[in-house]
Design goal:
eight-stranded mixed β-sheet, GMP Synthetase, Chain A, domain 3, binds adenosine monophosphate, alpha/beta, about 625 residues
């Protein structure tokens, strides 16, 4: 049978014999109580996978490997920032996770409580996550690059009992102190300030005051303690991960426990093809979904070794990642296309310098992978390169090629075909009718979503339904991406259909950026859009209308405001001060026209525009630079 036939057969099983299919996958996970039904779906679109089963995620990721793999490395931490390398075996990880769980308990954390983790890429961050799920608490990891406002809105929404943080992160040799950012966010929150557990790396000054505890001291107090894993219902939330949408309020993507565990483990077998005992290197951050899934949970659930990397891909030189592949005999690597585009600029010499024969497959996801970069890296590496398409919401690939089934031929620019369990549909955006081959349509997924996908928005079931299941009814999940499928069944992603943008694989909501800019007293109105960028995919550009009553803010003041409140990733590349924004007669900002102009293109015909003269003035401002 050819690989494409094998794939088709496997996919068909997942669609036509859904329960048997997932029953089989669920055998790869330890259940404390077996589930009664594979899927309970009596309240669409809310799916309860493995209903009635109980399990513990930490037990599956750590304890179950102790007998066979206690001395095997679970985590290899490499920091090119601190010039350190630390190996942590499964036995050592077990000890640390138990102690951290005991610390949480001593701080009053119970099952169902939230713990917010605002950490750099250090092993304590992973320990903090695993200890959390060990006691049935729910973690919410916030990317360490986010700043005060972004952090505060997440704290307010998740209402954590404890925030785990560090004195500082490091980036490109620069120390980024976290405490001032956390303190500034505490000024903005509206809830009772959560307790703080602080890992002191000795990098930045910080005061431990009331409600603030030192990680090492607390761990020492709990040395040697064992905390039995709390068995939770399959549908019990394991974590919340905030992502951007079209409104300014971030959405807390909530993931269950049982479905998540099964989906992660199964993806290692069928998609990534990583065997227990092998090593995976995911160049991402634990603050993003790729980090949750493929730095932490999937490799550890598989009994594999995961490399946790703190640093840049080009420092000390652009060969650093390839040197790690050689040194640790990495079998599977995962990163974002932007990282490869950065490395591409430096050529292939540093790839050829290392023995990369252990690397079977490099997976790339998080943003569009342009054909040129796909071709370049495929030629440069001895192994395969696979583009996969997914979202924070799904937690694992929607479209991909399958190393575990047998790779199908790659088409550059295409993330191949739907993953088992995903009933992908391409429909006309106004009629919901399926589109023909090679025609652009909205990418939808027929509900129920497979195991491992978001189960709701934290604390807001209504928003979950309204956001994702309102376009064409509760049976269709909207990805908000356009795509087309060619005559061979390969999919091509054509970009988002909403105001969400993607900078270097990081998803940002333009609304959140606009709200922060509006905080400045001189700003009356603002439109932030994403414009094409060769390296990062997209960059933020903002158009600001200032008040006549106050002194206008400078461009650099406004850029600094965004960095301070959201984080450097959201910092606009350009800010243009304009006299007005193009709007319809009913007052709706014509964002597409603004984006075209920012990209140097003609805004096109705008029959609904209220005052066309603003276009001239915007074009003139952009030309001036
Ligand atoms: P995030 O939730 O941050 O992972 O962002 C998800 C969004 O990134 C998707 O909705 C797509 O717009 C985009 N995306 C992710 N992976 C790919 C890919 N392989 N090709 C094209 N776009 C992608």
């Amino acid at each position: 049978m050819s690989n494409i036939q094998k794939y088709k057969e496997f996919y068909k099983q997942s669609m036509e014999n859904r329960d048997d299919f997932w029953q089989e996958q669920a055998k790869m996970i330890d259940w404390d109580t077996p589930f009664d039904s594979v899927l309970e779906y009596n309240n669409p679109p809310f799916a309860k996978w493995f209903h009635g089963g109980t399990l513990n995620l930490c037990q599956n990721a750590v304890d179950r490997h102790l007998a066979d793999r206690g001395d095997q490395n679970a985590i290899v931490w490499v920091s090119t920032e601190e010039d350190k390398e630390v190996n942590i075996t499964f036995a050592q990880l077990h000890k640390q996770v138990n102690e951290a769980a005991a610390v949480y308990k001593s701080l009053g954390v119970e099952k169902g409580d939230r713990i917010l983790i605002y950490m750099p890429m250090i092993p304590q961050a992973v320990v903090a996550m695993l200890a959390c799920v060990r006691i049935g608490a729910i973690h919410s990891v916030v990317f360490g690059g986010f700043a005060a406002h972004a952090l505060a809105s997440r704290i307010d929404d998740a209402t954590p009992k404890v925030v785990v943080t560090a004195d500082a992160g490091l980036r490109g040799g620069k120390t980024i102190a976290y405490q001032p950012l956390l303190d500034a966010s505490y000024q903005q929150i509206t809830i009772t300030p959560p307790k703080v557990l602080l890992v002191n790396r000795g990098l930045a000054e910080g005061a431990l005051g009331e409600g603030k505890y030192d990680w090492d001291e607390q761990m020492a107090k709990c040395a040697g303690q064992i905390v039995d894993p709390v068995m939770v219902e399959s549908s019990h939330p394991s974590y919340i991960l905030y992502t951007s949408g079209t409104t300014g309020t971030p959405k807390g993507v909530q993931r269950d426990t049982g479905g998540h565990a099964v989906a992660m483990r199964a993806s290692m077998k069928h998609i990534y093809d990583l065997q227990p005992g092998e090593t995976m290197f995911t160049g991402s951050d634990i603050g993003w979904v790729v980090g949750h899934s493929y730095i932490v949970y999937a490799p550890l659930l598989t009994g594999a070794t995961t490399i946790l990397y703190e640093g840049l891909p080009i420092r000390p030189d652009p060969g650093i990642w390839w040197s790690l592949i050689e040194k640790f005999k990495v079998s599977v690597m995962f990163t974002a296309p932007t990282a490869i585009r950065v490395l591409k600029k430096t050529g292939t010499d540093l790839i050829n310098k290392y023995d990369l024969t252990s690397l079977r497959t490099l997976f790339l996801a998080g943003e569009p992978l342009d054909s040129e970069t796909h071709r370049w890296i495929s030629d440069a590496l001895p192994g395969n390169v696979v583009d996969n398409y997914w979202q924070t919401e799904t937690g694992w690939p929607i479209l991909t090629n399958f190393a575990g089934i047998g790779l199908m031929e790659n088409k550059f620019g295409s993330p191949t075909m739907p993953a088992y369990g995903f009933d992908v549909m391409l429909v006309d955006e106004s009629t919901a009718e399926p589109v023909a081959a090679n025609e652009k349509g909205s990418l939808m997924i027929k509900a129920p979503l497979p195991p491992g996908c978001m189960t709701t928005i934290w604390g807001d079931d209504k928003r979950f339904v309204e956001t994702y299941f309102s376009r064409f009814g509760k049976e269709m999940y909207a990805t908000f991406d356009y795509a087309l499928r060619d005559e061979d069944g390969y999919y091509f992603i054509m970009g988002r259909d909403d105001d969400v943008i993607n900078v270097a694989g990081h998803r940002l909501g333009t609304r959140e950026i606009e709200e922060v800019l509006c905080k400045h007293s001189s700003v009356v109105e603002v439109a932030a859009v994403g414009v094409k960028d060769e390296l990062k995919g997209q960059e933020v550009v903002a158009f600001v209308v200032s008040s006549d009553q106050t002194e206008a803010a400078s461009e650099s003041d406004l850029k600094a405001l965004v960095s301070r409140e959201i984080g450097a990733i959201a910092r606009p590349k350009n800010i243009y001060m304009v006299s007005g924004l193009p709007k319809t007669r009913s007052g709706k900002v014509l964002r597409r026209a603004i984006r075209s102009m920012a990209e140097g293109e003609d805004p096109g015909d705008l029959p609904t525009i209220d005052d066309a003269s603003v276009l001239e003035s915007i074009i003139a401002t952009i030309k001036k630079g």
